[in-house]
Design a protein that fits this description.
Keywords: DNA-binding
Distance between the termini: 54 Å
Largest sheet: none
Mean pLDDT: 92
Oligomer: single chain
GO molecular function: DNA-binding transcription factor activity; transcription cis-regulatory region binding
Protein name: HTH-type transcriptional regulator BetI
Structural class: mainly alpha
Helix content: over 70%
Order of helices and strands: HHHHHHHHH
Length: about 180
């Protein structure tokens, strides 16, 4: 009989599996083999693949928020100040694998694949809510600034993944970041 894993250990294994091989290859069976346990242990904590994938994406989001929180000012004047603080922290090889998983999820959501097309809008809304707290002003203004921050950061990081770090860095400089 294999090791008795906790929910957190299984989730950590799932995050690492997604980082190593992608979300689309994450299955109960593969995760169980990776951990040296039965897939029934995985199902005990995550009753559906959708639940597992959702929790993996939330865990990755939490890690990214922890990285970003230290870089952000208490209150930002606007989205440009936030992106200027975020991009240097996020544009590094240590964070690239997390964004690779995030962009895979975005692509699967755009292709209307379950659970991504249902989960992605919820995660996006949670990110906007989190970012909005770094701005002052009306709720509508804070939301607009948070959305603009996400659009710029996601665009730069997607460029980093597809065209390479130098292209993304050039774009950031052109944007005045």
């Amino acid at each position: 009989m294999g090791h008795k894993y906790s929910r957190d250990e299984i989730l950590e294994g799932a995050v690492q599996a997604a980082v190593d091989h992608g979300l689309s290859s994450l299955t109960f069976g593969r995760l169980a083999r990776r951990l040296g346990t039965s897939d029934r242990v995985i199902v005990y904590y995550f009753t559906t693949k959708n639940a597992l994938v959702t929790d993996v994406l939330v865990a990755i989001g939490v890690r990214l928020q922890e990285v970003l929180a230290g870089a952000f000012p208490d209150k930002a004047a606007d989205h440009r100040q936030m992106v200027a603080a975020a991009y240097p922290v996020l544009a590094n090889s240590a964070v690239d694998p997390l964004f690779a998983v995030y962009f895979e999820a975005c692509g699967l959501a755009a292709a209307h694949q379950a659970p991504f097309h249902e989960v992605a809008p919820q995660l996006m809304a949670a990110w906007v809510d989190w970012l909005a707290d770094f701005f002052s002003g009306s709720r509508a203004r804070r939301t607009r600034e948070a959305e603009a921050t996400m659009a710029l950061v996601d665009g730069l990081l997607l460029m980093r993944h597809l065209a390479g770090p130098h292209a993304a860095d050039r774009a950031a400089r052109t944007l005045g970041l």
